[in-house]
Amino acid sequence: MRLFFLKRILLFFLQRWNWLKVAFYSIYFLFLQISNNGALSFIDFVVITFVFFVAIGVIELCQYALGLLFSERRYIKASLVLGGSYMMLAALGYYVIHGNENHMSTFMWNTEVEASWSAFLGGFNRFYWTFFKYGIILFLFKQMLHSIRSRKVPRDDMNSGKYTDLAQENRTLTLKSGITTYMVNIFRIVYLEVKDEITTVYLIDGPPLEVKMSLTKFFKQLPKNRFVRIHDSWVVALPYIARETKGYIYMNHYNDKPLKLGKPERFSEYKKWKDSNKIS
Fold first, then answer.
1. Cβ atoms of 71 and 207 closer than 8 Å
2. 226/277: higher pLDDT
3. Which segments constitute the HTH LytTR-type domain (predicted)?
4. d(Cα 239, Cα 219) in Å, to the nearest integer?
5. Which of 150, 170, 196 is the last residue of a domain?
């Protein structure tokens, strides 16, 4: 019973992750305004709001870069995102504060301190690192929720009597991605995506695997009581479906990647499964 409620609580948090972040940002914005409530003019309020949105941008860029780094193992792109965002914000900040006389420069900069690059970067680095740490905390918290919930899924499937033939066989697939061959357990596959005859395998952990094989051929190797085709471009694992919203499916571990449903008459197996499980 406790595992049931834990699973439902984790699912609630993961499905509403973006709304939870909006709530966190809103509370933090209110905190900023309250802490600076001493005789602030309207222009001061605008400056604080602008700085707040820059801070949110740093947090979101951090989470995106960490996802590229650890979830997709795209190290070069992650480095370019972090390095490029840092340099762009630093150059823009220096120009806004020291490029000409404006209210933001007088509000944020002590005129007794020399307006040099070294002095500016000292303050900017503290600002950037502060909100970069918030991004790390949010990323780790989301990964922790995913990790806890993913360990329950196969066990729940087996306890409920579903997919027992797969549990007994411990089915694995031999996949060649590039020059490397992988042995992948089907319980780890969340969904498949095809583009130009290259099928990308998205797993519950680790980087996606690109396999030179058509989705139709790949789908024939998979058990039909666990995987269904929902579109010309996608095959999904039924246990990892999080929700369906406005013609899109959202998968656990990939809640930020909506998968568009194809026509029900062409992909009827998903509709049959949805009707039998009373999914709305």
1. yes
2. 226
3. 173-243
4. 16
5. 150
Confidence of residue 182 (pLDDT cuts 50, 70, 90): confident
Tens of pLDDT, residue by residue over 73-87, are 778 888 998 899 899
Long-range contacts of 45-51 (CB under 8 A, 24+ apart): 47/103, 47/104, 47/107, 47/108, 50/104, 51/108
Answering whether pTM is above 0.90, one says: no
Residues 86 and 197 in one domain: no
Judge contact between 215 and 170, C-beta under 8 A. no
Look at residue 202 in the predicted model and tell me its pLDDT.
Answer: 93
| Tokens describing residue 108 | 């944020």
Say if 155 falls within a structural domain.
no
The Cα-based distances of 171 to 63, 83, 150, 188, 229 in angstroms read 34, 42, 18, 11, 19
Which residue's entry shows tokens 């571990």?
A: 253
Contact 253, 237 (CB under 8 A): no
Give the pLDDT confidence of 102-137 residue by residue, as tens digits: 566 666 666 666 667 777 788 888 889 988 998 898
Please state, in angstroms and rounded to a whole number, the distance separating the CA atoms of residues 173 and 185. 6
Q: State the first-to-last Cα distance of the chain, in angstroms, to the nearest integer.
A: 24
